[in-house]
Amino acid sequence: MPHLFEPLALCSVTLPNRIVVSPMCQYSAVDGLATDWHHVHLGRYATAGLGLIFTEATHVSAVGRITPACLGLYTDAHEAALARIVRLIKATGNAAVGIQIAHAGRKASMQPPWKGVGKRAEGAEGWISVGPSAVAFDDGWQIPRALDEAGMATIVREFAIAATRSARAGFDVCEVHSAHGYLMHEFLSPISNKRNDAYGGALENRMRFPLGIVEAVRAVWPKDRVLAVRVSATDYMDGEGWSLDDTIAFAHELKARGVDIIDVSGGGSSPKQKIDLKPGYQVPLAEAIKRATGVPTIAVGLITRPEQADAIVREGRADAVALARALLHDPFWAWRAADALGADVAVPNQYLRGRKLAV
Ligand SMILES: Cc1cc2nc3c(=O)[nH]c(=O)nc-3n(C[C@H](O)[C@H](O)[C@H](O)COP(=O)(O)O)c2cc1C
Question: Tens of pLDDT along the chain (359 residues)?
Fold first, then answer.
């Protein structure tokens, strides 16, 4: 059995294989509520023999949304809409279902990318963003309001409430989004965190608020379900900013707080980042974190070929692989991978005739 198709047991959750649908914003929500689009988008993955299906970044408050069209989880109606999606996926296939809970910090209140990358939400559509410091991401971006301790305590509570709602909605995995230059990563990185109180300066201080969020989520998220954290393992800023060594220190702290798996991404702190984009470009980061801490990891970033994905798992470089763009292109990528690797994949009865079709 190729390792890509071996189940992965984490807590009392077993992923039927190691192929993960990476979180992907759809900018198709209305007032934070999931719409028909989400049913189509996530529903097609539900039929496709994948191991774990993540929702897109789902925000813990209205202010924390990246755009006005992003998903939220801060009212009963949001919870009910997401519970419906969990039911839909679980009724269709055997994939585990994960939610990514998030706060966009200084990168909130933007337009969906197809209305202009880096364009602010205008007029009544937009709102004032918050961050560790009153420093904009880039020229033309909003200068956020620097959070005080009361504001930070509110956000910690919002994450805990969103995690409670996620558990009630039936998710198997809760991933806390601490990557891509959004709020938690903004506190971690000296590029965005210019504070001189207990939450800025030394690494220990910069980790304090993100770790407080993880502790609050862990306290309410069921012990038998999987707690994940997505990190940016580096700012890709040539010796400046947040580094892999910092991430390893952070990962040790996450492990001590009961995090079950780390989803290893990168970048997002600065428009000046320099990423050497090539197949599997972030796999060495996932591997380094796994080796240094013993915490299971998910690798992500230009993993597109079945043999490549299988080798990552087989060589113990990561415990699972997340795919984003390749799964937009081909939701049935796992069928193709099963064919290439000679593995079995779960197929709904309704689709059996399509699976066996000789072409
Ligand atoms: C359309 C789209 C939306 C994305 N939205 C999110 C998101 O909500 N949360 C997140 O952590 N990453 C998001 N990402 C990043 C992906 O999860 C993934 O890490 C990245 O695309 C690299 O993987 P890939 O090379 O397989 O596409 C998004 C990527 C795409 C293409």
Answer: 569 999 999 999 999 999 999 999 999 999 999 999 999 999 999 999 999 999 999 999 999 999 999 999 999 999 999 999 999 999 999 999 999 999 999 999 999 999 988 899 988 899 999 999 999 999 999 999 999 999 999 999 999 999 999 999 999 999 999 999 999 999 999 999 999 999 999 999 999 999 999 999 999 999 999 999 999 999 999 989 999 999 999 999 999 999 999 999 999 999 999 999 999 999 999 999 999 999 999 999 999 999 999 999 999 999 999 999 999 999 999 999 999 999 999 999 999 999 877 65
Does residue 25's CB lie within 6 angstroms of at least one atom of ligand 1? yes
CA distance linking residue 175 with residue 226, whole number of Å: 8
* Number of Cα atoms under 13 Å in the Cβ half of residue 39: 9
The pair of structure tokens assigned to 289 is: 């974190």
Q: By the 8 A CB rule, do 230 and 178 touch?
A: yes
Q: Is 325 in the pocket of ligand 1 (CB under 6 A)?
A: yes
- Name the closest-CA residue to atom 11, ligand 1: 23
**CATH number of domain containing 223:** 3.20.20.70
The pTM is what?
0.98
* Domains contained in the chain, number: 1
Examine the residue annotation and report whether 281 is marked as an active-site residue of this protein: no
210 touches ligand 1 (CB under 6 Å): no
Query: Alpha-carbon distance 111 to 105, whole Å?
Result: 15
Taking the CA of residue 180 as reference, the ligand 1 atom at the shortest distance is 11
Cα(266) to ligand 1 centroid in Å equals 11
For 212-310, list the strands marked E by DSSP.
226-232, 261-265, 297-300
C-beta separation of 118 from 109 below 8 A? no
323 C-beta closer than 6 A to ligand 1:
yes
Q: Domain of residue 289: give its range.
A: 3-355
Catalytic residue among 27, 182, 199, 236: 182
From CA 58, how far away is CA 71, in angstroms rounded? 5
Q: Residue 295 C-alpha to ligand 1 middle, in angstroms?
A: 22
- Going by alpha carbons, the residue nearest to atom 2 of ligand 1 is 24
Query: Atom 12 of ligand 1 has which residue's CA nearest to it?
Result: 23
